[in-house]
Amino acid sequence: MRNTVTAPTTYAWEIEARDLRVRVGRRRMAVDDVTLTMGRGVHGLLGPNGAGKTTLIRALATVLRPTSGTLTLLGGLELRELRRRIGYLPQDFGYYRRFTVREFVEYMAWLKEMPGRDVPSAVQRAIERVGLADRADDRLKTLSGGMLRRVGIAQAIVNDPAVLLLDEPTAGLDPAQRLRFRDLLTELGTDTCVVVSTHLVEDVAAACTDVVLLADGKLVFQGTPTQLAAAGTAEHAGDSPIERGYTALLAGPKRHGSW
Amino acid sequence: MTAHHPGEQLLRRYARGDDDIAADQLWAVESHLETCAPCRGRLVPDPIAETVWADLAPLLEHTPQMPSARPWRRRLTAWVSPTAGPWLAMILVVVFVAVLLDRLSKVAPGGISLVLLIAPVLPVLGVAASWGRTLDPVYELTASTPRAGLPLVLRRTAAVLAVVVPGLFATGASLTQWLLPCLAFTAGTLALGGLIGVTRAAIALVALWAAAIVAPAVALSRSPGAFDPAATPVWAAALALGLLVIALRRTAFTRLGANR
Fold first, then answer.
1. Is residue A190 classed as helix, strand or coil in its secondary structure?
2. Residue whose C-alpha is closest to residue B254's, from B144, B158, B156
3. I want to staple A238 with a disulfide (CB 3.0 to 4.6 A). Which of A1, A243, B118, B149 is the partner?
4. Which residue from B minimizes the CA distance to A119?
5. Is the ipTM of this complex over 0.90?
6. Across A59-190, where does the E strand assignment appear?
7. Residue B216: exposed, middle, or buried by beta-carbon count in 10 A (0-12, 13-18, 19+)?
């Protein structure tokens, strides 16, 4: 599903990591020897709590420096130029309570160094895409949790990023909103490299073209949702084929029976 | 550019998309249209614009118009961190209270001036409020943007100094006594902040100031030597050292570590 309208790129993969290690704190290697490539499409980042999903996304967002290994984004641009083309929604999305939705997204567009004349229309478009046009001039403190999450998504897509990193974007969304969000993901995935971290396996099944499975900072599996489903058999725990595949791949000898 | 414009009939057939035009003619019309604006104009008759507008007009009425979202706020947040406002107000209140207390106790020459004692640590608080993760909920997003980095930190710091310095100047305290310590502590916060994080740096420096200068001054009830003219070279050296470390560690502010 490559978008043929955009100019050809000079790199093969939007994200290319080789033997990537990221240390958190003094000792813990939260991402340990991960080698992976990601192109356009929606990549679901799965794994148990503490598997290193957030650390990997932070490293991809360039806010954490890799301890060793190489990480090449968009063919290796200079940091500032690269960041103009990244959209990022952190797991604990903080916001300014007294800003309106429009002011907040505008402020983020300014931080992302968008040309001033493009900002108002880009902000309006981002807010419309997440379905908040009717609340655009309400202050953030008056919004519900799900709406705030959508503000977070709006600020991430306001600069039309080539790499979009979303850490737990579906937390706090109700079922109907999650369905709409999956549609948006599919739409964004046609010309963007989207990385979505989640622990909801059904999100992955519905919207992702590619699954990356992490456990204890190591890469356990990368492939399509169908391949993930094929890894599981009837005797593995889970309600859907993908869930069974997930448990099958994570069921190492020492993890058996523990949380 | 060619003088041979296609005839009316040929152009109409081209616009209709007739497939019986000879290949060479089609090619000629196409390449001519690429370079000739008047002929492109002939291609699109007026009614098209009217039809499009008729379709668009009702939609435009439903689309919310983009109001100018308080432009002053946009200009302000380019300098002052969105979280720093209340803290800057607090700093001014603290200065005012200090001046009031000084007036009440009628500082004798050689006695302790409260304004002088708090002056160096005031900008430290402002800087911590602008870049520290404890006070700025959006620290992680900010750190991930292209604008994050030393230039933005310096803008935020300039905004803090633009409030603190005039505030202290208005107290009438001797400029030579507080300006250098004030600047040295500001530079020190950023320099140390690049190494261990701005919040930690602010806590460390305020604690240091309280333990080394304020406590002895209060205990002995006399003005500390730090404000003597003799201390000026020391403050200047500290300021220079701070600026040097900031310059060396300038890339630290593009990462998460500097918010700690």
1. coil
2. B144
3. A243
4. B66
5. no
6. 68-73, 86-89, 163-167
7. middle
